[in-house]
Amino acid sequence: MKGIITGFSCSDHVSLTKAPAFVKVILFSFLSLFLFLLVRQFSSDITSVSNPTTPSRKFPMSFTSTPNQTTSAVAGENPPPSSSSPPTRQPGMAVERTGIIDENGAMTNDFMVGEFDEELIDSVVNGKNGSDEGLQSDENGGPLMGKIGKFRVCDESMRDYIPCLDNVEEISKLNSSGKGENFERHCPPKGKGLDSLVPRPKDYKLRIPWPKSRDEIWLSNVHTPFAKDKAGNTWVKRKGDKYIFPGDGTQFSQGANQYLDQISKMVPEIAFGERTRVAMDISCGIASFGAYLMDRNVSTLSIATKDVHNNQIQFALERGVPAMLAAFTTHRLLYPSQAFDLIHCSRCSINWTHDDGILLLEVNRILRAGGYFILAAEPVHRHEENLFAPFKEMENLTERLCWELLKEGDISIWRKPLNNSCYLSRAPAVQPSLCDAGDDPDNVWNVNLTKCITQLPGNGYGANVTAWPARLHSPPDRLFSIKMDAELSRREIYKAESRFWHDIIRGYIGAFHWKTLDLRNVMDMRAVYGGFAAALHDFSLNCWVMNVVPVSGSNTLPVLYDRGFIGVMHDWCEPFDTYPRTYDLVHAAALFSVERNRCNVTTIMLEIDRILRPGGRVYIRDTTPVIEELQEVAHALGWVPFKYDSSEGPHSNWKLLIGEKRL
Ligand SMILES: *[C@@H]1O[C@H](CO)[C@@H](O)[C@H](O)[C@H]1NC(C)=O
Ligand SMILES: *[C@@H]1O[C@H](CO)[C@@H](O)[C@H](O)[C@H]1NC(C)=O
Ligand SMILES: *[C@@H]1O[C@H](CO)[C@@H](O)[C@H](O)[C@H]1NC(C)=O
Ligand SMILES: *[C@@H]1O[C@H](CO)[C@@H](O)[C@H](O)[C@H]1NC(C)=O
Ligand SMILES: *[C@@H]1O[C@H](CO)[C@@H](O)[C@H](O)[C@H]1NC(C)=O
Ligand SMILES: *[C@@H]1O[C@H](CO)[C@@H](O)[C@H](O)[C@H]1NC(C)=O
Ligand SMILES: *[C@@H]1O[C@H](CO)[C@@H](O)[C@H](O)[C@H]1NC(C)=O
Ligand SMILES: *[C@@H]1O[C@H](CO)[C@@H](O)[C@H](O)[C@H]1NC(C)=O
Ligand SMILES: *[C@@H]1O[C@H](CO)[C@@H](O)[C@H](O)[C@H]1NC(C)=O
Ligand SMILES: *[C@@H]1O[C@H](CO)[C@@H](O)[C@H](O)[C@H]1NC(C)=O
């Protein structure tokens, strides 16, 4: 804590410390009593750790809340486990707004129960330093003014700064071998990372809500795109203070929906929204492919390189479509093997046959057994067709990869085999060879690409996932191949995690009005089995979740994909590959207590601030000392922090910190 505080000025230190001690004591007693009552109404029962198979850290306290919410919020199919609901609720206690920002980003003042003097709380909490009673006065829902000064705002030129991709110094040192190394991650060295707040553009506006944002976004929120556009493209039009994306005749000559219909007609087995649930779109334009697939219950991750003239990913995210920066270069992409049921590349300017097809081998790794690869050369863009390897070469390569060519033409579709039998029956001299048996295809963090074919698991895992939506809740085969300590029933852990988050999200919906928050781009910084994302889906929150699996824990990514979610491996000691201001909700449960042993948590908090949209929220659940520490940082970041306690009382081990980044 000391380390964090040093270096900041204490400009807004409203002090009560100079007041006579007895006044303080009286004030604190009053406050404590009041807050105690308040907390009792506010946070209600605790779901205790009911699963003996996991350390308690994995199942922190539950914040189930008001008794009022159940009728409106429960989706029905998944009743809460009776074992975890002790009957300590106090009926009839309606909770009003809990200090949530309204649509305009202003703090609403109808701030929960009763009458109290907010100013009094603020001033008392401010002066809490050194007082024993004061420590308990934190348990309130009001904004806390921290003791430390604010971070400074970075230079205006850094408003679209992505630390690992904009490291000009490192990139200029590269001896380019033409493999796109300049698009890879080159993170600033330790201690040289971001230490200020990335500024937002002038005239930044609160985003347009989904689904309207699929068709229009604010001009002022994104960096002027396509400035150097030669192709005279019609992906995006400017209209007043907005960019509009006409639903028809854009990236796809006949409109995205017709294009998808065409694909479905060509290969009906693709079955969008059933057999095909998770897709990838490479170099996606402005992610219209994914935006329109969403209506068909397909979750599409759009990826592209960072390109200053074509900042497609920023557009995609501003629209509210799943996207991140990633490049096919010299390292494995940060997705597990057999992740995507379908991979799509329309004029994606990648030479798939180059270097003995090393990049297509990477596609092969992340494509699910029996999955589809679609390569489209749009007639509109025929003048760029020379960017593709001649089709014969492509055909030759895919044949050696045992892919079955289903359709050939402007849209070509291949299918990956379901098992290794074809690989094993190839002539021995045929290249590329098979990867070593010792190669772990799910090991992706900082792993070089190699020219070999990733074999499928001999036991058929991954090849036979249940159709969506049943896939969401049925424990997949690959649950059993994850490397982790627990030898006890993984199926039970998986189910317990789902139940746990189901209860918590129900609480959040009731207490924090998640249904009215209009969440869209959500990140779970430590997803484990994806119970959080599953709960958001079950409660029909109209959002998508980027499930991040930190390198500091078990690699559960295959399970997340088998459930039908998207996710990515990441080391939170480093910045994430996304533009600033791209997520509406960042969620971190039991993350900081792990990462604080690996790196500086202030740096992680700065990174969260970078990727959080103004108007966005951060939900952090962690142990009490960690939350105390983070609360200080949250305030220094200019968020409005709220700390919540469970009914276990102020000495409970787990707390919830909510930070609001207001416009
Ligand atoms: C829920 O609370 C609202 C007020 O916030 C109240 O009007 C409504 O009757 C309550 N519903 C139930 C089922 O208690
Ligand atoms: C808090 O109290 C400690 C000693 O109790 C003192 O050293 C420190 O300067 C105080 N901090 C502030 C911000 O007043
Ligand atoms: C780049 O090339 C120069 C000389 O050609 C060499 O001195 C330098 O070490 C190389 N840098 C890297 C990162 O390989
Ligand atoms: C953590 O990072 C912050 C901001 O970059 C810095 O002020 C602080 O000194 C660092 N703390 C430690 C312990 O390195
Ligand atoms: C998508 O899934 C929902 C249920 O999860 C279903 O009601 C809806 O009909 C599906 N839409 C399509 C186009 O399949
Ligand atoms: C792609 O790479 C292959 C093999 O290196 C080469 O023959 C072909 O000309 C390349 N295509 C383009 C458009 O550069
Ligand atoms: C594929 O190309 C290789 C050399 O690039 C050639 O030896 C082989 O005969 C080709 N295979 C087919 C089926 O055309
Ligand atoms: C392997 O997959 C192929 C289709 O790709 C299928 O025809 C064959 O029966 C499968 N073999 C086994 C042993 O499952
Ligand atoms: C990855 O490739 C780079 C450059 O070719 C090489 O320096 C490095 O040792 C390789 N790493 C591993 C683990 O093989
Ligand atoms: C795939 O799973 C379904 C249902 O779980 C099962 O009926 C079917 O036999 C499985 N197919 C294979 C090839 O394992």
In short:
Residues 47-73 have a biased composition (Polar residues). With 663 residues, the chain is of the alpha/beta class.
Please give a structural write-up:
This is Methyltransferase. Residues 47-73 have a biased composition (Polar residues). Its EC number is 2.1.1.-. With 663 residues, this protein is of the alpha/beta class. Helix content is 25%, strand content 15%. It has helices at residues 2-5, 21-42, 70-73, 118-126, 132-136, 168-172, 256-266, 288-293, 312-319, 354-366, 391-400, 421-424, 490-512, 531-538, 557-563, 592-595, 601-611, 624-636; strands spanning 216-218, 237-239, 242-244, 278-282, 299-304, 323-325, 340-346, 367-376, 404-407, 411-415, 433-434, 452-453, 521-524, 544-550, 566-570, 583-589, 612-623, 640-644, 654-660. The strands form 4 sheets. It has a 7-stranded mixed beta sheet with strand order 6-5-4-7-8-10-9, sandwiched between helices. Strands 15-14-13-16-17-19-18 form a 7-stranded mixed beta sheet, sandwiched between helices. The structure holds 2-acetamido-2-deoxy-beta-D-glucopyranose (10 copies). One 2-acetamido-2-deoxy-beta-D-glucopyranose binds next to loops. The site of one 2-acetamido-2-deoxy-beta-D-glucopyranose has 2 residues, from α11.
Please name the defining characteristics of this protein.
663 residues; alpha/beta; 7-stranded mixed sheet; 18 helices; 19 strands; 25% helix; 15% strand; globular; binds 2-acetamido-2-deoxy-beta-D-glucopyranose; transmembrane helix; glycoprotein
Flag low-confidence runs. Answer: 1-20, 33-146, 227-231, 379-384
Bound molecules: 2-acetamido-2-deoxy-beta-D-glucopyranose
User: What is the gyration radius calculated from CA atoms?
Assistant: 26 Å
The major pleated sheet works out as: 7 strands, mixed
Structural class: alpha/beta
EC number: 2.1.1.-
Membrane topology: Single-pass membrane protein; Single-pass type II membrane protein
Transmembrane segments: 21-39
Family: Belongs to the methyltransferase superfamily.
